[in-house]
Backbone:
């Protein structure tokens, strides 16, 4: 941590981080331990593993986690590490198995993680002591969260509490996966996360998103409330007042949640808001028209867009007819991965009620463009000429992100 404290001294508020934060492998290892492994990480939707024995593997940094549904229908998470000599057990990204058989010496584990078979073991070997090592897991509203803390993780109920009203309105538990896509990104994960904390780049990088969204939203709310100068924010909030009033009348939540100082001190960084897409559009699609049937508790389309952020590693956007789950993963110092999962009403039928390519259009093109700009950023940042730049008044959430990052890096 000496290194981190030394680097921190070179940081000037209002500027971007110095180069070493993005290039030092010791800092990267510390970030994993101090930040990534301590957060509740949203990893997928439950509809990916509907039957006993169904599993998928979540890989991030050096860890690989098997999320599997047991014969008792319980979903559990195990380290993908054989308790014999440590080999990876599941080599495929997903599948369905009665037994998880290690490819090295064939030790076999049940879907509940118990060791079932191991040949030629000494007489006093107790199979019951050599089951797979479990990782913390919670399912909330159909979303699967894991926590890689070796000790007790932060309290899940406390963590999810301020996000509940909005999540439960959109009912992700009554949805299913329409389509999923991965965006491997050759860049340090902080560049990926920073990019998602600002929409200053949206007018240049995202013509499709900017065509569907109200241009004032792009400035004032594109990366959440408080990221634009006060004047623009106030003007926008004033403009959408009648829409917000209408939401209140209809019983649709529209309250903003910003992380509290107390939450930030504990390493939390959660966010909720709900605003109109604008331009008369009902959904975030190419033509602004709905792409699927209503989700959650909506009785009618109101053209709203909800943002719920669990932490900088995962968030959900909801229109009235679909949800987009964003998962941001650090892989190594210069490698990250972004995965998007689009959710629709569980009753919606493909090709009748929705077409995956229509539901996914806006955030697919937008994320593909983000990948390019983030990779360009990483390349330029490696130059010997690089110096931290000054953040604009439309990038305040980047500064907030740095505060969250520094707080976590310094927590005991
Ligand atoms: Fe898995 Fe030997 S390492 S059976
Ligand atoms: Fe972007």
Residues:
């Amino acid at each position: 941590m000496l290194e981190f404290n030394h680097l921190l001294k070179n940081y000037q508020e209002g500027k971007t981080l110095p180069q070493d934060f993005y290039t030092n492998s010791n800092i990267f290892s510390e970030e994993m331990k101090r930040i990534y492994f301590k957060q509740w990480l949203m990893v997928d939707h439950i509809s990916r593993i509907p039957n006993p024995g169904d599993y998928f593997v979540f890989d991030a940094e050096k860890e690989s986690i098997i999320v599997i549904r047991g014969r008792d229908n319980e979903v559990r998470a195990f380290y993908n590490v054989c308790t014999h000599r440590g080999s990876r057990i599941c080599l495929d990204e997903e599948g369905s198995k009665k037994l998880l058989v290690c490819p090295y010496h064939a030790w076999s584990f049940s879907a509940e993680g118990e060791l079932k078979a191991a040949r030629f073991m000494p007489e006093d070997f107790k199979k019951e002591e050599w089951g797979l090592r479990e990782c913390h897991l919670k399912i909330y509203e159909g979303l699967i969260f894991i926590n890689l803390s070796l000790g007790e993780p932060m309290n899940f109920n406390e963590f999810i509490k301020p996000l509940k009203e909005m999540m439960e309105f959109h009912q992700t538990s009554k949805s299913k996966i329409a389509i999923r896509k991965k965006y491997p990104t050759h860049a340090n994960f902080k560049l990926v996360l920073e990019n998602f904390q600002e929409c200053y780049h949206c007018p240049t990088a995202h013509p499709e998103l900017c065509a569907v969204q109200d241009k004032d939203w792009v400035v004032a709310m594109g990366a959440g409330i408080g990221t634009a100068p006060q004047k623009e924010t106030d003007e926008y909030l004033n403009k959408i007042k009648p829409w917000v009033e209408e939401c209140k009348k209809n019983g649709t939540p529209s309250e903003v949640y910003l992380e509290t100082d107390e939450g930030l001190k504990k390493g939390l960084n959660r966010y909720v808001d709900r605003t109109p897409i604008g331009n008369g559009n009902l959904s975030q699609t190419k033509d602004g028209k709905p792409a699927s049937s209503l989700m959650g508790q909506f009785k009618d389309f109101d053209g709203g867009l909800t943002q719920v952020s669990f932490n900088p590693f995962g968030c959900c956007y909801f229109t009235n007819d679909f949800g987009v789950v964003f998962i941001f993963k650090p892989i190594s110092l210069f490698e990250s991965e972004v995965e998007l999962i689009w959710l629709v009403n569980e009753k919606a039928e493909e090709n009748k009620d929705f077409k995956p390519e229509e539901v996914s259009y806006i955030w697919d093109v937008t994320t593909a463009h983000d990948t390019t700009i983030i990779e360009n950023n990483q390349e330029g940042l490696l130059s010997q000429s690089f110096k931290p730049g000054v953040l604009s008044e439309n990038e305040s959430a980047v500064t907030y992100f740095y505060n969250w990052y520094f707080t976590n890096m310094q927590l005991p």
User: Anything to note?
Assistant: The first strand starts at residue 41 and ends at 45.
